[in-house]
């Protein structure tokens, strides 16, 4: 396990790699399998919100808060594991994607609109 002063993304990726190695799960943690697992976890996250009204979703029920935290953590951890296994610097990829989206959706054309960039 890395020192806790390390980059939190790298620390989590290291912790996940160690967790898998200790259990001999690396053989199962190929990108395809990890994406399938991530998809399942996203489904579990969606299930928590499935029948909530928009107002209830904004004020998520306190009695389900721990379940929400666990599902969000599952999604994040699988995403980090996929990035690690694929050699993707997730922070750099996110920074690049935000810059790309800023160019694709200029404020003066999309402010307050839900239109896709091809419709602006």
Automatic annotation (TrEMBL):
Pfam families per UniProt: MazG-like
Biological process according to GO: dCTP catabolic process; DNA protection
Key words of the record: Hydrolase
MF (Gene Ontology): dCTP diphosphatase activity
Domain of life: Bacteria
GO cellular component terms listed in the entry, alphabetical order: cytosol
PANTHER family attached to this UniProt entry: DCTP PYROPHOSPHATASE 1 (PTHR46523:SF1)
Protein name: Nucleotide pyrophosphohydrolase
């Amino acid at each position: 396990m890395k020192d806790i002063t390390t980059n939190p993304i790298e620390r989590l990726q290291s912790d996940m790699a160690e967790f898998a190695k200790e259990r001999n799960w690396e053989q199962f943690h190929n990108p395809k399998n990890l994406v399938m697992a991530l998809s399942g976890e996203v489904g579990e996250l969606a299930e928590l919100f499935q029948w909530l009204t928009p107002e209830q979703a904004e004020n998520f029920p306190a009695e389900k808060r721990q379940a929400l935290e666990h599902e969000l953590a599952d999604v994040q951890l699988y995403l980090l594991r996929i990035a690690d296994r694929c050699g993707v610097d997730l922070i750099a990829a996110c920074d690049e994607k935000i810059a790309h989206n800023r160019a694709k959706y200029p404020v003066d054309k999309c402010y307050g609109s839900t239109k896709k960039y091809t419709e602006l």
